[in-house]
Amino acid sequence: MKTKYPLVLALVLAWMCVIALIFGAEFSRATVSQEKSLYDRLGGAGGVRTIVDDFYDRVAEHPRIQFFRGGKYAKVDQDKLKKHLVDFIGSATGGPQKYTGRDMTSAHAAMKITAAEFEALTQELSATLDRHKIGHKEKLEILQIVSSTKAAIVSQ
Q: 97: domain range?
């Protein structure tokens, strides 16, 4: 098709391409900013609860972790503790939960948790995440959240 105005047509097409690129970039940015929260990527409430339940079972009897500190905390309300863990992880990963437990320092001060025990705990969390086929990116994010509590939890 021949036109009398090839330059005008070329300019219109060029502007249409520029506009398409701008809208494409904006759409791409909007898509990236709408990435699901870590909480959602972990499976929401059910996923977080499943991970916490499995993790709790792994560490409760682990000899290197001494979760109940040689029986000192054997009578703790385990359901309440699990709820605190779910609420903490849920809240920290973008879920609707609100952690209402004590701050990390006062909650763990009397336990005298060592760096080696904390490391064993994070290894068990990592193994739990692997067992539930949590993606590498999500695994690193949740391990970073837990690692950020180390200074408040480890006392020796």
A: 38-153
